[in-house]
Amino acid sequence: MRDTTRDGLSRDAAPRVEPALRATRLTKRYGDVVAVDGLTFSLVPGTITGLLGPNGAGKTTTLRLVLGLAAPTSGTAAVFGRPYRLLEEPSRRVGALLESDDFDPGRSGRNHLLALTLAAGLDPARVEEVLALVELTAAADRPVRTYSLGMRQRLGLAGALLGDPELLILDEPANGLDPAGAHWLRAFLRRFAEAGRTVLICSHVLAEVAQSVDSVLILNHGRLVAERHINDLPDARALEALYLEATTEEPA
Amino acid sequence: MIAQLRSELLKQRSTRTSLSLIAWMVGLVVLVVALHVLSLGAADLSRQSNQMKILGLGTAIGALFAALFGALSSTAEFRTGTIRPTLLITPRRTRVIAAKVGASMLAGVGVGVLAAALTAGGEAIGLAARGIDTELTGGDYAQLLAGGAAAAAFFAAIGVGVGAAARNQVAAVVGLCVWLLFVEPLLLGNVPSIGKYAPEASAGAVAGAIQTEIADNLSAPGVGLALLAAYAALAALTGSLLINRRDID
Fold this sequence. Notes:
The structure holds two protein chains of two kinds. By secondary structure, chain A is of the alpha/beta class.
């Protein structure tokens, strides 16, 4: 079989969209417990994907594997074609907000961001930009221990945005945000995706997810049990029905 | 690497941990020197060897606090969770440990000089107050300051490695204190032929300050320096190896 067209160009020369993230048979075992079990999925640039599942379904472990914080037992996770730990300047490619409260309570929000900016080799002026974006400028010199949950969430988001990344990975991003904050976040993520960038959101709040995402991945016991485009799910109730069907144990 | 080092230096000065460690150290040095200068008899105090022993206590306290400084630079990241953003920005973990070693060694130099200067100054004031002549030379003081700084710098690197290996802050701090305050003095007292090669005795050798238990049995300063560098490299490499192999929760 010839692989070229009549004009001599390889068919592969047509621009093919490289997934922002690709997991291939990704597996993580802790002793006898399989936290993530042969997970295969990819994220198309310009889309928002929701990663759903009950507690213990393997969502957070999946994110840790993707972000190079934990090593897979088998399988691979590649962001922009390579393992996260081998990315050059990862903060310019990927921004992540993990669910945990990852701040030194005694350090100010501004210094938290500045320490990350220095390590990433980014322009320190970026700190003021992201602080303004998440509306934390006024509180930036206070130690993080004085911040509310919503403020910490916004500080985490500011950290994820420092490098102006192409892929955002957010674990429960709306947690602690007030309705106005949640509305702002939805609009922000939509603009982000419309600019051709990619978002992966982990969440429990199905109504929130139904309003934000283009497609959903549902995990249960570390396995991918459903994958749908949001157009196939007319409303939040349809998403809930799918979620419950996919994650409810069948009687033995 | 320079980027990570600048980040670590900012982390060091952007919480109160560093200041409170230094405040504790200053208090402890002043207390220990005062107790010795006030409690020893005038005849004992006027002997050069006893004056050197008091300086040795300052070197030991400087080394301990430098080690704690380094250990907290590693364990604070695990305790607060900042290890996750740190490693997301710099996924090559060896670079993070190397930057922590660099930043902590710089801080260690300051800690070591401060401890040595305070000890020497406190002792001189106490001796003058009791009307006892100082038997120490300019060379003794120079070695104390330079050696105290070098020893504390290496102890800071040891702390970073121990902290990265232990991850748990309480375990790392208790481990370092138990080793430096109990195990090593026991070793020096009971098996000085081995104990003199241990880290704290090496620090004493470098600074020329006599450790109480082995007045006549110190290594040469150069040997002490080489041993300390080896301990620091071993600890930093072990910490680096473990942080690279382990998953971050």
